Amino acid sequence: MNVLDLSRWQFGITTVYHFLMVPLTIGLSLLVAAMQTAWVRTGDRKYLAMTKFWGKLLLINFAMGVVTGIVQEFQFGMNWSAYSRFVGDVFGAPLAMEGLAAFFVESTFLGLWIFGWDRLSKKAHLACAWAFSLATMLSAYFILAANSWMQHPVGTIISDEGRPQLVSIGEVLTNNTTLAAFPHVIFGAFAVAAAFLVGIACWHLWKRSDEEPVWRASVKLGAWVGIVSFVGLAITGDFQGKLMFQQQPMKMAAAEALCHTEEPAAFSIFAVGDVSRADCESVKSVTVPALLSFLAHNDFSSEVKGVQDLVTEYQAKYGENYPVDERLGELSGQPIDYVPMLPVTYWGFRLMIGFGAISALVGAVALWLVRGGRQAPTGKWFPRLMLLSIATPFLGNSFGWIFTEMGRQPFVVAPNPTGVDGVWMFTASAVSANTVGEVLTSVTVLTLLYGALAVVEGFLLKKYVAGGVAGVMPPVKAPTGDGKDKDSDDKSDDDDDVLAFAY
Amino acid sequence: METFWFCVIALFWLGFLFLEGFDFGVGMLLPVLGKDNTERRVMINTIGPVWDGNEVWLIVAGAATFAAFPLWYASLFSTAFLALLLFLVALIGRGVAFEYRGKVDSERWRKNWDRVIISTSWVASFGIGFVLTTNVHGLPIDEIGDRVGGPFSYLTWQGIVGGLAVSGFSLVHGALFTALKTEGEIRERARALVLKMAPVALLPLVVTLLLVQFEFGGPATWGATVVVLLAAVGSLARLWAGREGQAFALMGVAVVATVIALFGAMYPNVLPSTVDPAFSLTIENASSSSYTLTVMTWVSAFGAPAVLVYQGWTYWVFRKRIGVKNIPPVHVPS
């Protein structure tokens, strides 16, 4: 293993792991804010219970999202210092904006929300929930702007030092790649939160837990959000795909294992045989004629370029061999492999779509099963399948990211076909000049730590899921009237007040 | 413009050292000032609503360095690789520990997370003090900005003293904060502790400042160093007189002066090279283009004051002292 491979593994592991927490936080925080809004408007205790229950799970998850996010920021400098030097002028800006404009808001208002139950008026407290959840979306926007610039660099020229130099922040923030990725990722986040609601609430309905209305409302909310999200994912995904055919044709050709240019091109549903790295000739695909042409260009007869022809094009444009540079190690002077790992792109693409579709289907089935006040089915398979289905949108998200990031290789900054010449960078040239020992230490330490934390988070989530509403709602005090057992508007100055929430 | 951004980054460090300084300290003092679980919960809850926001100051300091001085960011982070890894591990453990400690009602569970909070607060404060001080003294970097020598070639005793400086300062700052935010026995204990330990705990900070001043200091930074000393002594005097708020504020003045003394001494370098002064990164050769700096200036001109306002509001909302009687009984799923 060399520093490059280890650094790539580390980035992959830490990113996929971080992105398990992020979509749940984004999706769930908005749904919790909506639940709390319903409570403030109606005073219905059911909505308060939902806010508290799902809010607690949100917090358990958010803690992990934050701490793993810091690693993401640090490793650009630690593991990819050559990258940071090269692109800092452009890439650093959206990252800093994320911190300054979004992340400060998130962490501050989350603190206010957690501890503010009896310190703030109901409305101010609700406003904190919204500030927090909207800031998570804003965070996502800035991070996607940074990522999209790596997929499709815009708004830059090459400076006198030979580095990309920002000339238009507006272009970077309104990059069409960002505008397409943002709704796709947000719908993905809602799909995750939706499956989380449906899976857990169905389990409680099956268990015939107390507070049935809470679970029933959660299933309904989750199922509808899940179905709408899938429709959103399909539409935005199609839009994104068309952009990608223009911006990174190699990635899409690899996603289809399309060897030779075809006119019209067929869409591969699944492949039999060896989707191997070097050659896609041996693949026998089950295809739908002309569909790929339509997906790429909205035209059933258009030409779609295949991997082999693209390789020739890329070699002509970006060179056949890596430069001779000792920093590139064993790759120095070697031929550049422009074909991303086919099994990863091909199956990553299909698994993303497949898992996304399953999660929407589960929502629809759940909705059907509990329609009109019906009880959840008895038997063992129902709760198990429902709990298992929570994983599907997570998997869909992960495969989506793996596909989009690995499909860009060997570039870390993919060239923009219509952009300024020279704004691109090979991943091999991006890595820090660290020792194998150092990077091996960091991969090992972070992987083990993440593994241990996953166990702890899983344990806590399980405990709080099983605990239901009773585990998160304070025991009802003296009978002060139904549905209004806790008056948050009462802000007396009594110093002996017990905190409504405390660690 | 480069100078302005140098100051902005110093400001983020200031925010971090001032704010996270005391929440590091509260974590470190958990076993000393909190005699039982309820008292420990009082301490954790003094920082509960704010520690997360405090930490963002560091994250933004890092991101702002990336945007405004990418070469500084790249060289510092890749050179001090293992030190930063250790620091990251501590921050991860600490963040999770605060959130998870109270989620299970078991003595063993709480004891283990307490251990995590205590040790990671020490490691994190030491680690960031180490990185900051070695940055001021310089790192062994070549003309590209890559490290010369092995994974530990940047390890110096000045850096270790610097690590102790931030840990020691955090202890005092955290105890002052506890005295300011609690009532009853914890408050008394915290006051007594500061008066007893401050001279020892602040010693590494004084040594660090003097080392930096002897090496790089000018009249202004020597002045700032004197202010640190006066403010620290004044802080202890006010605490002696029973005025915790003034004591805490004066300690704040000491942090401001410390940041001025450290960053002022470094200026116009951002990262001196100990291999050859010609390889040093300066505000000129390490910075982004003026367009990027302009964009960032607009963003921070609106963003930073807003942050100060709403974070200030948070502290106002949770301004009350808390004590054992404010802590609710444990309520978690069985």
Automatic annotation (TrEMBL), chain A:
- Any one GO biological process: aerobic electron transport chain
A Pfam family recorded for this sequence: Cyt_bd_oxida_I
Q: Which UniProt keywords apply?
A: Cell membrane, Electron transport, Heme, Iron, Membrane, Metal-binding, Transmembrane, Transmembrane helix, Transport
Q: Where is this region: Disordered?
A: 476-496
Entry's localization field: Cell membrane
Membrane-topology descriptor: Multi-pass membrane protein
**What is one cellular component GO term in this UniProt entry?**
plasma membrane
Family of this protein: Belongs to the cytochrome ubiquinol oxidase subunit 1 family.
Q: Which PANTHER family match?
A: CYTOCHROME BD UBIQUINOL OXIDASE SUBUNIT 1, CYTOCHROME D UBIQUINOL OXIDASE
Kindly provide the name given to this protein in its UniProt entry: Cytochrome bd ubiquinol oxidase subunit I
Q: What is the originating organism of this protein? A: Actinosynnema mirum (strain ATCC 29888 / DSM 43827 / JCM 3225 / NBRC 14064 / NCIMB 13271 / NRRL B-12336 / IMRU 3971 / 101)
Taxonomic classification: Bacteria, Bacillati, Actinomycetota, Actinomycetes, Pseudonocardiales
TrEMBL record, chain B:
Which top class of enzyme applies to this chain? hydrolase
Mind telling me which residue stretches traverse the membrane in this protein? 12-34, 55-73, 79-97, 117-137, 157-180, 192-214, 220-241, 248-267, 295-318
UniProt-listed Enzyme Commission number(s):
3.1.3.1
One of the entry's Gene Ontology molecular-function terms is: metal ion binding
Q: Which UniProt keywords apply?
A: Cell membrane, Electron transport, Heme, Hydrolase, Iron, Membrane, Metal-binding, Transmembrane, Transmembrane helix, Transport
Keyword Metal-binding recorded: yes
* An example Gene Ontology CC term for this record: cytochrome complex
UniProt main location, coarse: membrane
Subcellular location(s) of the protein: Cell membrane
For whether the record's keyword set contains Transport, the answer is yes
Q: Which domain of life is it from?
A: Bacteria
Q: How does it sit in the membrane?
A: Multi-pass membrane protein
A single BP term in Gene Ontology: aerobic electron transport chain
Instruction: Give the record's family classification.
Output: Belongs to the cytochrome ubiquinol oxidase subunit 2 family.
* Protein name from the UniProt record: Cytochrome d ubiquinol oxidase, subunit II
Q: Which organism is it from?
A: Actinosynnema mirum (strain ATCC 29888 / DSM 43827 / JCM 3225 / NBRC 14064 / NCIMB 13271 / NRRL B-12336 / IMRU 3971 / 101)
